[in-house]
Amino acid sequence: MASAYSALPFKRRVLIVCIATLAGCLGPIAGNIYVPILPELEEVFNVSSTTIDGTVSVFMALFAFCPLIWASWADYGGRKMLYLLPLSFFILANILLATVPANIVALYILRIVQAFGASSVMSVGAGIVSDIFEPKNRAKAISIFMWGPQLGPVLGPLLSLIATTNWRWIFGFLALFGFVVYLIILFFLPETLRFLVGDGSCLGQGYFVKPKLQEKVVEGYPRPPKPSLKNYWNLLKYKPVLLCSINSGLLFATFYGVMITFSRVLSEQYNFTPIETSLSYLCPGSALIIGSSIGGWLSDKLMRREDYIPEHRFSIQIAGLLISMAGVIGYAWTVEKHAPVYAVFIFAFLSGFGMTWVFVATTTYLTECSPAQPSANVAIGNLMRNVAAAICTAIVDVLIRKMGFGWCMTGLGLLDVVGIIIVVVLLKWGPKWRKSREQVKSQV
């Protein structure tokens, strides 16, 4: 069934969201499937742990900044091409990683290319969802789309088990996975940018898509600004985008502190085997799925209010931030006091549940507060999250040694207090800032 917002049948829109979700797995899986075999790679490449860890940092840095390149072009020139072009680099990099002789310089270069190719999926995918789902149903669709980027860090360690016989199997798997996703996008994902295809009525009703280099422009839909540094600067000056992105970064840093210590805690303190540790990531993984789904449903339920404005989505975030904070602080002291392992799992679950609850509302709001540039807005949020994760990765071990596990993780958990303050500020002044920006645009 089509809607007034999109002429595409509901089943086809669901398929499009599923494709975006599948593509959204690629980058996070590529980043995390690699981590469990780092000790083996130290020996293979005959380098120190610091040198091999640097290949992870390089990937995360590129994965944080490159979406800024892709997102603006996706808002300006089309979504589909901004999937296919980067994916070509991703597939090529993984083929070479699986076949070229072991060389640390080549590893660094190809990890850079790999991150460059995988970096478009999050922001472009959010733009696709905003193209085909009206705001009243958008959070539910985004909650499903976010399963991909959120499950990637969980599935990565599990999929690393394929490297039990040879580490190159990891990159061979990623190349094959990327190629399958490429074919699915090529033949089943239509262009959705509303400037090019409008409400989608020009796309036909079938599921199969004949590949095209370029879509004709549909009249009546304003074109977003051409990509430029000035455009990103203007978005950063828009207080709701900046504050949402800072909030996301702080929250992700707290959750990442749990994730990067989780495996070490289970193996060293509770004597879990590598397989048991990998399977344990299903706990935070299920939290992300459940929290995302419930958060999306509640966020869209707020749309039923007659006086609805986009900022109303923030009203559920305080609960999510409190749940996340309780999870991180509870995790801190159950580990510190050597509590039974089930308590560690419960609090790790709560930290992920609260985080993803907040992220769904934030991502949906970023597609609404500046409708012409949803991918660019989400890319800024993605940048803040990945930078925060990189900083947390770099300092958490040092802080644990100096402060102790309990107090270090408690400090990370208390960052969510800053997030609660940001939410209160956005609830109070967000509508005024958004209306002021809309008035300025209408006068241009």
From TrEMBL:
- What region holds the Major facilitator superfamily (MFS) profile domain? 16-431
Q: What name goes with this protein?
A: DTR1
Q: How does it sit in the membrane?
A: Multi-pass membrane protein
Q: Which GO terms describe its cellular component?
A: membrane raft; plasma membrane
Q: Which PANTHER family match?
A: DITYROSINE TRANSPORTER 1, MAJOR FACILITATOR SUPERFAMILY
Question: Organism source for this protein?
Answer: Candida oxycetoniae
Keywords of the record, alphabetical order, are: Membrane, Transmembrane, Transmembrane helix, Transport, Virulence
Per the entry, what this protein does is: MFS antiporter that does not display functional linkage as drug transporter and performs functions that significantly affect biofilm development and virulence. No substrate for transport has been identified yet, but plays an important role in the growth in the host.
Q: Where in the cell is it found?
A: Cell membrane
Transmembrane domains' residue ranges: 55-74, 81-102, 108-129, 141-163, 169-189, 240-259, 279-298, 318-335, 341-366, 378-398, 404-427
Q: What are this entry's molecular-function GO terms?
A: amine transmembrane transporter activity
Database matches in Pfam families: MFS_1 (PF07690)
Report the InterPro entries cross-referenced here.
Answer: MFS (IPR011701), MFS_dom (IPR020846), MFS_trans_sf (IPR036259)
Coarse class of the protein's main subcellular location: membrane
What GO terms describe the biological role, i.e. biological process, of this protein? lipid homeostasis; membrane raft assembly
Family in the record: Belongs to the major facilitator superfamily. CAR1 family.
Superkingdom in the source lineage: Eukaryota
